[in-house]
Amino acid sequence: MKKLSSYHPLKYGVYLSIIGIVIISCSYLFWKNNLIGYWTGFSAIFVSISYFANSTILFGKNQNGKLALHSILILPYLIIIRLIWHIQKLISNESKMDKVTDNLYAGRRILNFEVPNFITQVIDLTCEFNEPSKIAKEKKYYSLSILDGGTPQISHLRNILSNINLSNEKTLIHCAKGHGRTSMIIVLFLLKNGICNNIEEAINFLISKRPKAKMNKHQKQFVEKFYNNL
């Protein structure tokens, strides 16, 4: 049996490295050593290192849903992805969440004013966003930090799957847009709880509820290997 390991989304690291180098070069050559330009470029490079290492330490998100103080090093990156997220939210016609089973919901990141009262438990898969204070304070909240496009640390995933009870809680599982990371974890919950009998059935079942909730090929490979090691 092959050793189970998390997937390193290397292409994200490559893209961010190139973007960072271009911004730093422009800051030096054309923008009169603009400090904001340097900060933005280096923040992209710092995040690229996180992708190469498959580590969320740079974000430092804790179990209260907040990023660590040292994440100020990548503040320009965080500001840019928030702007992109809000623009995508405005132009998307996708619902904020969709009911998968009686007690399980798949969704995107939600804001304080969007938090439904009936949701009692939230599993947050983002590493790059603070969780709304209403969720962290009023709901049972769990953070499973995963890089966008990546896969979770094995020990953290096993802990979530072992300790989360879906039978007595209305549970929302979300990432930034409610697609790849969300799909990956919900498929595993569907399999673990016997709602679906195999991976393809679980994937198709989820897509029937939330059509855009699709994993990339590496996330799907991770699910297959993890499921075979359960």
Q: Say what oligomer this is.
A: single chain
Average pLDDT metric: 93
Could you give a short account of the major beta sheet? 5 strands, mixed
Q: Give the helix level as a range of percent.
A: 40-55%
* Beta strand count: 5
Distance between the first and last residues' Cα: 12 Å
Q: Give the count of helical stretches.
A: 8
Secondary-structure-derived class: alpha/beta
**What Rg do the Cα atoms give?**
18 Å
Uncertain segments of ≥5 residues (pLDDT<50)? none
How would you spell out the order of helices and strands?
Answer: HHHEEEHEHEHHH
Query: Largest beta sheet: what is the strand line-up?
Result: 1-2-5-3-4
Strand content bin: 5-15%
Principal-axes geometry comes out as globular
Could you explain the architecture of this structure?
The radius of gyration is 18 Å and the shape is globular. The protein starts with 9 loop residues before the first helix and ends with a helix. Helices cover about 45% and strands about 10% of the residues. It has 8 helices and 5 strands; from the N terminus they run H-H-H-E-E-E-H-E-H-E-H-H-H. The model has no long low-confidence stretch (mean pLDDT about 95). The longest helix is centred in the first third of the chain and has 20 residues, at about 10-30. The chain is of the alpha/beta class.
